[in-house]
User: What shape does this take?
Amino acid sequence: QSGAIVTHHDSFFSFDRHICYRTVSRKDSVTAVRLSVARLGQGFGRAASTMSVPVIPYAATAADAEEVPVSPVHHPSAMRNRGPITRKLEHVLGAAGLMAPNPAPLVAVEVATGTGCHLEAFCKAFPALVWQPSEYIPELAQPETEKSSKIGAARPFDGDRDRTLALIDKVGSQSNANVRPAVALDASLPWPEWPEAVRSLEGQAALLFASNVTHISPWETSRGIISAGGKVLGASGRLVLYGPFKKEGRFTTESNERFDTSLRGRDPRWGYRDIESEVVPEAERNGLALLECHEMPANNFLLVFAKQNPPL
Assistant: This one.
């Protein structure tokens, strides 16, 4: 369940998709936001599985045209998508009032940090937040067939707990005062089995973030992340899921459908999750409501969930 290997419809497995952009009007974006918020206020979460989720179109900016630097550590596509994700998080966290300095530091938890590419950008863009990275570490004793069914970082030292976490810490806690040491996390486990560094934040976290996890891991992993969101987030906290999804039971592109087929060929428990019939209902069961659904570059979505009041 790492953000570090397979993702889209390329012929190879990598962090993410090649980038494409679509410019839309600000009016369309604002309209979609109003629709989303209005439906939430009308009990949208309770009927989400039978309703079409309004999508906020992606509006490219000048920053999207800037040249992306080459990293010796991070995958090129992860370097490309971290800019758009960071800018979208600025909107999400700002709207929730989570970017201002706070007497008690607000903590953001990242699931499946991978090589720390997103973390490296997030901790600088959001200095008011303290970041808790994590990564799935395959047990060395697991048979090869079981190892291949879960996602770990695509690096030669996969399964080496110390070296995997040390790579994250090199760009994280060792270089930035607002980043905590990375912890090993199997998100498919029940909440009581999550690491203490995360469980100790119950009811307090400002953000739980996961990118490119839901389609390249068993559904139990996605359920674990959503369930954790219902427990770890504070009243104003946000669960943010980034990646490719099905919409209203359909793939958004033919290439997405082909990639889904290839993923299920590798492991039948993998595959694209449907926003309306799978992700939203699971969130509802854990006291979360879909607040916004953002279109992102390269056929991705960024889903923003908030605590329901009152919960279902």
